[in-house]
Amino acid sequence: MKHLIAVCAAVLFSTISYGQLQVSASSGLAIGSATMKLGERVNASSTENSYGSYGEGINFQIRGTYFFDDSFGADLSIGYLKGTDQDVSIVNLPSTEVNAVARARAFGASASVVYKFTNNIYGRFGALLKLGGKTEGVIYQKSVFSEAEAEAFGVPNGSYSETNYKEDFHGHFPLGFVGAFGYKYDLDSNFSLFAEVEYYGISLKRKDSEIAEFNTDVKLPDGTVAVSGLYTIDNLPEGINKTTTYVDELSNTNTDTSRELSQKVPYSSFGINFGITYKFARAIKE
Predict the structure, then answer these.
(1) Quick one: signal sequence residues (predicted)?
(2) Domain span holding position 202
(3) pTM (2 decimals)?
(4) From 282's CA, which of 104, 105, 261, 274 has a CA 20 to 30 Å away?
């Protein structure tokens, strides 16, 4: 037992003696990977599928890495993704216009193993978690009144309703994969610059959504507002629910429109990051 304790202590002392901590900050641009159908684009002559991933966009990361020896280390990071707009519903018809997009606003974290192939080239891979945030839907809809509707509102033919609203979608906490290869260039004994290519493999199952903003105005053919705030967040039109819950199963006799079947949406991406690293002095100098 004493011999085992002595060996463990020697290994621990050796690890601490080498141990080196470094912190990094980076930003990068990601494009969608493993894209899925997110919506449709419709006009008078055709309908086109819209494909994408909510992982596309600009990301910011702060990372801490601890190397146990010349090659192996452990990495913890937190990041923020500002996703680009993805087309969900684009409609351009004589009586109806819709422009509905959605984008990610998400916080995530990862835990990875790091391996240095050389002093300049490294790789890392590990688990990816989504900590919080939302997929934000931004919707614009214009609907031209029929003659009967225009007469009911007391407005001339060609008048229309214009609706703008935002809906925030939240998901269950997922587990994904992250992998990266990078190259670093030492500026001095403490600072270095790096560039890396990174892959995120993750999907998110929807949990619930909530309408955050809502407004409908009635406008005349020239765009003048005839009725302001016909519908608002406190006075939603019939059939529109402020909150929606997504479930895996619904009865065929279900009449509750605030419950819908869930779906998985993609957040996978390929990206390139650029950043700077600061290396602290080793715990015990050799």
Answers:
(1) 1-19
(2) 21-279
(3) 0.84
(4) 274
